Amino acid sequence: MTVTSTSPATHDPRPRAGTAAYRRTVIALVAAAVATFAQLWSVQPILPAIATGFDTSAGQAALAVSLATGGLAGFTLIWSGAADRIGRARVIALSLLLAIVLGAAIPFSAELWTLLVLRTLQGAALGGVSAAAVAYLAEEIHPRDAPKATGLYIAGNPLGGMGGRLLAGFAAEHGGWQWGVAANTLLGLAALLVFVLVLPRHKTGTGAPARRFGSDDGLSMGQRLKAAMTTRGLIPLYAQALLLMGAFMAVYNVLGFRLTDQPFGLSQAVASLLFLSYTAGMLGSAMAGNATLRWGRYGVLTTATLLLLLGLGGLFTTSVWLLLATLLLLTFAFFCAHATASAWVGSQAVTGRAQAAAVYTLAYYLGASLFGWLGGVVYDAVGWNGTVALALGLTVLAGLFALRLRKLPAPEPATRAF
Fold this sequence. Notes:
The chain has helices spanning 20-40, 47-53, 58-61, 63-86, 88-105, 112-140, 146-175, 177-198, 221-230, 234-260, 268-272, 278-295, 297-313, 320-348, 353-382, 384-402, and strands spanning 2-4, 415-417. By secondary structure, it is mainly alpha-helical. Helix 5 packs antiparallel against helix 6 (112-140) and helix 10 (234-260) packs antiparallel against helix 16.
């Protein structure tokens, strides 16, 4: 079967950068990113408080993050299938609504297992945003400007993550970990309202399947999944998501323990301030789109990986100021690499795009779940330096996988054969 898609020709009606529709779409998707990542990472800076409250270890407390990211990873393919049926924007809104309802219940957890179950379900609910957002931008924004829009959307990831962490840290300092979670649930609700009110409407419905360009109509889920797993270059890109996110989360999951322990001995609120390093992540994400136009995706990805290694190497320091500087560098580098790889998946997967984005997201959060938890286990066993060494090893492995992307040709968008 041969499916002919609409080529990104001169008369492509999708919005270009600078138009009102483009701005509204980007603002709405950034709001969705803020709502997602504020809630997903809300417990990370308050893991020491959770460990104290439930009288448990760093590794056990880290499950509050790892199970949420694991739930998100496990449901991305399910959400991607729903997005093909009811539209990506509807899936994003439903996903956020379910997560907010679950988030409202989390502060009432009296036992650790209850907290962990609710966090797993909340992560599963949030999977809808990650499964649909990049594919939505690839289909609704002009191909020339889609990488830039994707970079801006991904800049919303560290914005939400940083804001959620800071909000949780300060709220927990005054009212316990429960208030830290509750504050981010309210932030998620406000961001959901922005998404619903700002996103442009289409005659076929908000992001409905009929609106999609280069859609996979007529192809079965099995065919789309096969394309997502066999299209040249996608497997190495999935490896970037798994390994780089794993390295990043291994460090950030135990950062709160490192900062509140000796030699730093910071309070919960002051330790949370170091999550301001996520401002560098916003810059890295936003710059990635323009950088790839100048130097190519492989060049940007390789440079970001080298900078990430440099930043990780600086984490062995016992100076709080040098630690902040290295956090800024590694956070900038990670989100630059993530934005580049994510947009690359969106353009490389001309068939089964939603499924490719879902597999990338699955790998991304599987890395966060598995290696984020493992980072806590290593920290309990051998300390901070062991966790940093784990992150360095994962980053080197990601760089080796990236070598397969050096001469990756652009996909052929006009013809897709099955």
